[in-house]
């Protein structure tokens, strides 16, 4: 009755159909912390039931709620959660996100989904790639400030790697000796007089990795990439790399010596200054655009520009909610009251349309916003 998904945005946010149910819940990876989570979930589901009865008394919600009841009893699901959970459900279906960061518990029924937390989680402003590299293997990760996930390389790339390094390479072509400490840095010793041949093979392997990663990951994703490898491999790879997305600073340790939590912490130490710089550049771009009448922070003007397809980038304040409705068919914004149980968030409805039209949406904290209204749009024309 539900589908666990990883891509955002998902088609469900574009399909019209009320009611829209949004549920966020903090979860835990391990026992005993995760044992109470089905109980918390049950309470949130009860809130949804009450909201449906109050806001949509004539709607038959039995079929729609089956997804939540199924999840509630799915013991295997609750045994394999991460740090947070997001569920979007409507008469068109139910999707589930397992998140690498905790979220505030929330259960809301409205005429649109509450998606800003998901946008912030998936947005490119905080997203990066990691290339874990050794002399005979690679791993590729995508992450943000909250966590990293390993990406499958694919059978073709894996086969090419095996062909390039040869079957004997991993069986003793190099020995890895750790002397003088346990910092994860290894000293490599060739067998006999074969060091020059070893270096040539490593260089050949690195050239293939650089080209394959650029074509298969960096060009399509257009994300900054951090190299995670031993110091000597950092130097060799950077000399031959043609990847413009490779950031100057790397993590100089074997990626195999780090768990995902350690990898996240070290990566964000590198990425946070770049993120702050990018955020400031976006704020400066908005101010320049606004001065030329190519941007606005007024909700009614932004709504009209979204309707006309003129919004290239919109900055939205992370925790700002503007009660109201945005009509994507007319561009009109109708403000409402926070006390109105049927009133959604006009910002969420606007950014949904921007995403549909392939615009960029960036969710940033209030102290980094260039305006006080909660929105700042940069126009295409």
At CATH's second level, what is the architecture of the largest domain? Answer: 2-Layer Sandwich
Stretches with pLDDT under 50, minimum 5 residues: 167-193
Principal-axis shape: globular
**Count of beta strands:** 17
Strand order of the largest sheet: 1-4-3-2-5
CATH class of the largest domain: Alpha Beta
Major beta sheet summary: 5 strands, mixed
Q: Name the helix and strand elements from N-terminus to C-terminus, one letter apiece.
A: EEHHHEEEHEEEHHEEHEHHEHEEEHEE
Separate helix tally: 11
Distance between the termini: 44 Å
Structural category = alpha+beta
What is the rounded Rg? 24 Å
Tally of distinct domains: 3
Our estimate of the beta-strand percent is 15-25%
The percent of residues in helical segments reads: 25-40%
By CATH, the topology of the largest domain is Nucleotidyltransferase, domain 5
Mean pLDDT: 87
Descriptive report:
The chain is of the alpha+beta class and 381 residues long. The protein folds into three domains: 112 residues, Translation, Eukaryotic Peptide Chain Release Factor Subunit 1, Chain A (2-Layer Sandwich), CATH 3.30.960; 146 residues, Nucleotidyltransferase, domain 5, CATH 3.30.420; 87 residues, 2-Layer Sandwich (60s Ribosomal Protein L30, Chain: A). Helix content is 38%, strand content 22%. It contains eleven helices and 17 strands. A five-stranded mixed sheet has the order 1-4-3-2-5, covered by helices on one side. Strands 8-7-6-11 form a four-stranded mixed sheet. The protein has a four-stranded mixed sheet with strand order 12-17-13-16, sandwiched between helices. Helix 5 packs antiparallel against helix 7. The protein is globular and about 80 Å long. It starts with a strand and ends with a strand. About 7% of the residues have low confidence.
């Amino acid at each position: 009755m539900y589908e666990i998904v990883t891509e955002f945005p998902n088609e469900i946010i574009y399909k019209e159909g009320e009611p829209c149910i949004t549920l966020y819940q903090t979860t835990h990876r391990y026992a005993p912390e995760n044992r109470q989570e089905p109980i918390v979930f049950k309470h949130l589901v009860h809130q949804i039931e009450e909201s449906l009865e109050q806001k949509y008394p004539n709607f038959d919600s039995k079929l729609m709620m089956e997804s939540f009841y199924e999840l509630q009893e799915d013991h295997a699901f609750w045994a394999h959660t991460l740090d947070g959970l997001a569920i979007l459900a409507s008469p068109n279906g139910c999707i589930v996100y397992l998140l690498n960061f905790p979220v505030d518990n929330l259960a809301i029924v409205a005429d649109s989904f509450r998606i800003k937390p998901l946008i912030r989680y998936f947005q490119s402003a905080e997203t990066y790639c990691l290339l874990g590299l050794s002399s005979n293997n690679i791993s590729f990760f995508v992450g943000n400030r909250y966590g990293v996930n390993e990406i499958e390389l694919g059978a073709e790339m894996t086969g090419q790697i095996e062909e390039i390094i040869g079957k004997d390479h991993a069986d003793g072509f190099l020995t890895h000796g750790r002397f003088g400490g346990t910092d994860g840095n290894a000293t490599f010793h060739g067998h006999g007089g074969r060091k020059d041949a070893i270096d040539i093979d490593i260089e050949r392997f690195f050239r293939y990795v650089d080209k394959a990663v650029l074509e298969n990951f960096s060009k399509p994703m257009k994300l900054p990439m951090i190299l995670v490898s031993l110091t000597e491999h950092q130097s060799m790879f950077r000399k031959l790399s043609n990847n413009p997305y490779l950031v100057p600073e790397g993590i100089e340790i074997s990626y195999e010596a780090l768990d995902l939590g350690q990898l996240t912490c070290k990566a964000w130490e590198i990425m946070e200054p770049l993120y702050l710089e990018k955020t400031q550049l976006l704020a400066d771009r908005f101010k320049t655009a606004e001065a030329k009448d190519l941007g606005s922070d007024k909700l009614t003007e932004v709504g009209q520009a979204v309707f006309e397809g003129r919004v290239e980038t919109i900055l939205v304040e992370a925790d700002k909610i503007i009660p109201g409705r945005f009509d994507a068919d007319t561009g009109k914004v109708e403000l409402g009251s926070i006390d109105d149980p049927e009133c959604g968030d006009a910002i969420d409805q606007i950014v949904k349309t921007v995403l549909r039209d392939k615009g960029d949406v960036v969710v940033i904290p209030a102290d980094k916003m260039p305006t006080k209204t909660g929105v700042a749009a940069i126009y295409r024309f």
